[in-house]
From TrEMBL:
Keywords: Hydrolase, Metal-binding. This is Fumarylacetoacetate hydrolase family protein. One of its GO terms (molecular function) is hydrolase activity. It comes from Vibrio ulleungensis. Belongs to the FAH family.
Length: 287
């Protein structure tokens, strides 16, 4: 099942993506929660819950894909937990040994944008870098989860571009400030339920392109901490809630390590693609 968060006639909506368009739940199923986070919090098996609506939907329930204004997959997540240096080759290219424990930082919801929205290059810096990633979305409350059970708590996945201001990232020993500028966390284009994808996204190729040129091209087999381990490690510390988002790390090929460095500028087009998750596409716009 593919679920899209979008804006229509000035209101936030959620819908089921099909070949015909998006089935708007506000008309097709007004009795259901009307955003993805609330659907997850209600404890539903989304595939079982929503599949009958695809058969029952009338033409009036559809919004054409060409009319969508995409929102972040989860517009206001309880937590956005980011994992740094989770691909071994990316750790090496940055001059660090692969970590023995995840490098963890947080993003705020105000930094999020949807598919096709502009990534904003702030007026204070020209060091805006791309970071294509896979996001895991939590489906049920998790605390003290074993590695063996870790994948049971992931409802689905989406793409993410953890666009980073490299100079601000290094102003502090913590990375938070460089990762939280407004309009820099592209999240989309759609949420895909875990049952439609490889378990734990294992063996999936992830690619980032800048103006059509391949910049990052790696396989999730290079994960240092696979999905099930991340759930176990994080839930040892904190309670994971439905709608929480885990940004699982970026592979080698980021712009700042290149010679000369490559940073994104006004008008650039950046795309992130992974098997089964579509293409997340955004244009860079100066503040």
């Amino acid at each position: 099942m593919r679920i899209v968060s979008f804006e229509h006639e000035g209101q936030s909506r959620v819908g089921i993506k099909t070949n015909k368009g998006v089935i708007d739940l506000s008309t097709a199923a007004p009795h259901l929660p009307q955003d993805l986070q609330q659907l997850l919090q209600a404890g539903h098996n989304l595939s079982e819950l929503l599949h009958p609506l695809v058969e029952q939907a009338s033409d009036e329930d559809y919004t054409p894909l060409t009319e969508l204004v995409y929102l972040p997959v989860v517009p206001n997540p309880p937590k956005i937990i980011c994992i740094g240096r989770n691909y071994a080759a990316h750790a090496v290219e940055g001059g660090a040994e692969p970590p023995t424990y995840p490098e963890i930082f947080l993003r705020g919801a105000e930094s999020l944008i949807g598919h096709a929205a502009p990534i904003v290059r702030p007026r204070c810096s020209d060091k805006l870098d791309y970071e294509g990633e896979i996001a895991a979305i939590i489906g049920k409350k998790a605390r003290h989860v074993s590695e063996e059970d870790g994948l049971d708590y992931i409802a689905g996945y989406a793409l993410f571009n953890d666009a980073t201001l490299r100079d601000y990232q290094r102003k502090s020993s913590q990375w938070t400030i460089g990762k939280n500028f407004d309009g820099t966390g592209a999240f989309g284009p759609e949420f895909v339920t875990a049952d439609e994808l490889p378990a734990g996204m294992k063996g999936v190729q992830l690619q980032t392109r800048l103006n059509g040129e391949i910049m990052q091209n790696a396989n999730t087999d290079d994960f240092i901490f696979p999905m099930h381990k991340l759930i176990a490690i994080l839930s040892e510390c904190m309670t994971l809630l439905p709608g929480d988002v885990i940004i699982t790390g970026t592979p080698a090929g980021v712009g700042y390590v290149r010679n000369p460095p490559v940073f994104m500028k006004q008008g650039d087009i950046v795309e992130v693609e992974a098997q089964g998750l579509g293409v997340l596409k955004n244009t860079i716009q100066d503040e």
